[in-house]
Amino acid sequence: MRLVSLCPSNTEIAIALGCTDQLVGVDDWSDSEEVAGRPRVGSDLAADMDRIAALQPDLVLASLSVPGMERNVAALRERGLPYIVLDPETLEGTLESIRLAGDAIGVPERAERVIGELRERIEAAVGRAVSGSPSLYWEWWPKPLITPGRDSWITEMSRLAGGRNAFEDLEARSRPVTDADVLGREPDFVLLCWCGTLQRVQRVDAVAKRPGWAELGAVRAGRVFTLPERLFGRPGPLLVDGLELLVDLLTGAQIPQSTGPTSR
User: Fold this and answer.
1) Which residues pair with 256 in a beta bridge?
2) Across the 264 residues of the chain, what is the mean pLDDT of every consecutive 10-residue run?
3) What residue ranges define each of the domains in the chain, with the CATH number in brackets?
4) Predicted TM-score (pTM) of this structure
């Protein structure tokens, strides 16, 4: 089966399912070594339908995980290209997306094996979770400040790691907030996980220079960290790597040393 993936998380799902050789095209942001050199079909927010059609896919793996991706789905429908949409909001939903992809590609047994292995790792991570439910402020974007809300897998991952998303009450996947909003919630940790190329300029020391942030307990205690967006912002198998890293961070077992690859 000839597959085209329109976002990194879908590419990583196909790789996990053992279908790398079937990927004949991927989006510009897919950075896995396994697809280096594969034909690119444009941004995950504006895929090139002519390039996709030229690849003669049997199935396009589309997504709605980022606002704006609905344009791709509409264009696929208009062109009559075969596609499925993977759109999980939770870690559990991500596992279901792997199952959906496995069924659509024709490798359901592989999908169940992958899901089983990921569940074992999730259970092991939960077994090491921190106690005390520290409050976590997650930052997707710095200007304006954008944070994940209730309808994000980040909220579930925070709980599984023993923490709590400071903005878990926001009825949205993500939403802009103000400095005052963050300061008023007094998070125990500040976790910078900026999207895209902004990861290159994530700086822990810059957080204290924001108005009022120097007095935040997390800043005074040195609990401001940069995290790789590829492990937290992509609803695919790498979220489990992210959960393991989060548990290590909250328990003090490991402190992140870099922000990782700079892509979606």
Assistant:
1) none
2) 97 98 97 96 95 98 93 97 96 97 98 98 97 96 95 96 97 96 97 80 90 96 93 96 97 64 37
3) 3-124 (3.40.50.1980), 130-251 (3.40.50.1980)
4) 0.92
